[in-house]
TrEMBL record:
GO terms for molecular function: transmembrane transporter activity. It is found in: Membrane. It is a multi-pass membrane protein. It comes from the Bacteria. It comes from Oceanobacillus polygoni. Belongs to the sodium:solute symporter (SSF) (TC 2.A.21) family. The chain crosses the membrane at residues 6-26, 46-69, 75-94, 123-144, 150-169, 181-199, 219-240, 261-286, 306-324, 355-373, 379-403, 410-428, 440-462, 474-493, 499-521. This is SSS family solute:Na+ symporter. One of its GO terms (cellular component) is plasma membrane. The keyword Hydrolase does not apply. Keywords: Membrane, Transmembrane, Transmembrane helix, Transport.
Length: 541
């Protein structure tokens, strides 16, 4: 074991002990039934800002480190997409969701469409979250592997077990304590990374790289389709960002949650810029590493003493925990609270907490299994998880918020077909991160199938109980937009297909038709009475 490994282990173990202590302190805050899941809804704007920064910016920093090593400055678009998502949630989403006292997205679906929908959406959501957790765990595991010789898989397992230990204690309060502590580790990490950059390669090194590999300074070098998928995935995720909602909605008021999100959006900038600079620096100093995340520790070993390298990777450890902790906890909430209550509707609050703690253990095992399957390409795990979760839950959430016409059968069908079609499309493409079956990204296939299924099954189920609203400006805009995008895909098929934009245009066209259906199709008087009768029977059963 190298000196770098000794420092990394000492600092990681010390930080681990502090986190476990914080979890025990957080346990004292569990005074109400909502304490474990939403922290008594008593977070101020700073706690929300720290939680969201640790969640999104920590994950984004790790993804950009990897992406910028491979593709250069174009990795910045991943961070820009993240910032856009945060600001949209802040200004358009968080107030209405706070008023609904939402805890999970799967809970929203279940409250609207019943136990089967709640159980299925909760299980799919829970399945995706360990993928996000393992994506950031890989970054610290890569450094651990370089410094100590311990395998990547064992390092991921160590991270997963740590998450399980400290989340068991205080739930959402554990996350709040941890994210606040992480901010100090993040600050040290950025400062040390800047020091390393000016030592080697410095500004002159960037100039040399620009002459030797100009593509590294091309804002489109990651590929148009990949960049579009980043933005598309983050935008679709706006109404599905369950872990972010669970933390932001733990605020004492909608205004505090909104302010915290806005602050977190601006706090993301150092992570984005730093990730690009550090990744490109590693590409200059260690140009032939097996992966970008392996190159980063090798680069820092070239230019910094062991204590500083250890502190830098303490920040990376914080990034892994800042993203992985909320993901594991939110996934366990969906599995324990939502699936548990779907299976056992009479479960008490204490029983649901018990189910959630058991779910944390199950998801820890799943996270370790994912780490064994694929311990490279951190960004791939993120996008893959978004694909299978968003492909299943996007249309049901939109329907729960805006289209009371939708039936329970349609929601269950769309959950199943969206999830399986996205998964199948990845399989047909060989699970590749940048090359897709028929040059269409799986997220566009899964999300389109999700929307089409929920629409067609609803129309078939409702039958004569529907009526058309003849005048609606947004409905006509959606219809016209769908027709235009369909014609563009037909007329310019070759260009759209070759550039990888066919799938995007297809999805946006389907989404436009969906908007038109939501605005035009309504229940008639008979249908409305039947729905009211069913809701009355359900509420009194």
């Amino acid at each position: 074991m190298t000196e770098y490994g000794v420092w990394t282990i000492i600092l990681a173990l010390g930080y681990t002990f502090a986190l476990i202590t914080a979890g025990q302190i957080a346990k004292r805050r569990l005074t109400k039934k909502d304490s474990y899941f939403v922290g008594n809804r008593n977070f101020n704007k700073w706690i929300v800002a720290f939680c969201i920064t640790g969640l999104f910016s920590g994950s984004t920093f790790i993804s950009i480190l990897e992406l910028s090593y491979l593709t250069g400055i174009s990795a910045i678009w991943y961070g820009v997409a993240e910032m856009v998502q945060i600001f949209i949630i802040a200004f358009l989403i968080i107030r209405s969701f706070r008023k609904k006292m939402l805890v999970t997205v799967s809970g929203l679906i279940g409250d609207t469409y019943g136990r089967t929908a709640k159980g299925l959406s909760g299980a799919i959501t829970a399945f995706a979250f360990p993928m996000w957790s393992v994506a950031t765990a890989i970054a610290f595991a890569s450094a651990f592997h370089v410094f100590t010789g311990i395998s990547l898989s064992l390092s991921v397992a160590f991270t997963a077990i740590l998450l399980f230990i400290y989340l068991q204690a205080g739930g959402m309060w554990s996350i709040a304590f941890t994210q606040t502590m992480n901010m100090f580790a993040f600050g040290l990490m950025i400062v040390i990374g800047v020091i390393a950059f000016f030592i080697n390669p410095g500004l002159s090194g960037l100039a040399t790289l620009n002459m030797e590999r100009p593509e590294m300074f091309n804002f489109g070098s990651a590929g148009l389709q990949v960049i579009v998928v980043w933005f598309g995935t983050f935008l679709v995720n706006v109404i599905l960002a369950q872990a972010a909602f669970q933390m932001a909605l733990s605020s004492r008021s909608p205004e505090e949650g909104q302010k915290g999100l806005v602050m977190a959006g601006f706090m993301a900038i150092p992570f984005i810029v730093g990730g690009v600079i550090f990744g490109i620096s590693a590409a200059i100093v260690v140009p032939n590493a097996s992966t970008g995340l392996i190159a980063i520790p090798q680069y820092l070993m070239e230019v910094l003493p062991a204590p500083l390298v250890g502190l830098f990777f303490l920040g990376v450890w914080g990034c892994a925990l800042g993203w992985g902790g909320p993901c594991q906890f939110s996934g366990a909430t969906s599995l324990g609270r939502d699936v548990g209550s779907a299976i056992n509707p009479s479960a008490t609050g204490d029983q649901l907490i018990k189910y959630t703690k058991i779910s944390l253990l199950l998801l820890t095992g799943l996270m370790i299994a994912f780490g064994l399957l694929r311990t490279e390409q951190s960004a791939w795990w993120n996008v893959f998880a978004w694909t299978i979760r968003n492909s299943a839950t996007f249309a049901p959430v939109v329907a729960a918020l805006f289209w009371p016409v939708v039936t329970k059968r349609a929601v269950v069908a769309s959950l199943f077909t969206g999830f399986t079609s996205g998964l199948l499309w990845y399989y047909l493409g060989g699970w590749h991160p940048q090359e897709f079956y028929l040059n269409i990204h799986p997220v566009w296939i899964g999300s389109s199938v999700n929307i089409v299924t929920i629409t067609l099954v609803t129309l078939a189920n409702r039958g004569t109980n529907l009526t058309l609203r003849k005048t609606d400006r947004f409905g006509y805009m959606g219809l016209i937009g769908g027709v235009i995008l369909t014609l563009v895909n037909i007329i310019y098929f070759e260009q759209a297909y070759q550039s990888g934009l066919f799938g995007l245009f297809m999805f946006v066209a389907v989404l436009s038709y969906f908007i038109a259906a939501i605005r035009f199709v309504r229940l008639n008087e008979v249908g409305a009475v039947l729905v009211e009768e069913k809701e009355y029977i359900a509420s009194n059963s």
